[in-house]
Amino acid sequence: MLRLLASGLSNAAIAEALCIQLKTVEYHVTNVLGKLSLASRVEVVLWARDEWPDGLPDGRNPG
Question: Distance (Å, rounded) from C-alpha 63 to C-alpha 45?
């Protein structure tokens, strides 16, 4: 979930990729933002760049 969020996918795209409901994604995004003390999806991308400077765990670069 975090990897998909950090790669810039929309909630709908994340739901489709994980085969879960949109409301479930919205719930998890809210939890991720809270646990990382971030205010927006943009901050997640910036956090991922700092946390994974060589790219996301799947080899892609955030943002």
Answer: 6
Q: Which residue segments constitute the domains of the chain, with CATH numbers given? A: 2-51 (1.10.10.10)
Please give the structure tokens belonging to residue 29. Answer: 């995004």
**Residue 53 to residue 63: CA distance in whole angstroms:** 12
Phi, then psi, of 45 in degrees rounded to 5: -60, -45
The pLDDT tens digits of the residues spanning 11-50 come to 999 999 999 999 999 999 999 999 999 999 999 989 988 8
Give rounded-to-5 percent helix, strand, coil for the chain.
Answer: 60, 0, 40
1 alpha carbon, distance to own chain's centre = 6
| Burial category of 3 from C-beta neighbours within 10 Å (exposed 0-12, middle 13-18, buried 19 and up) | middle
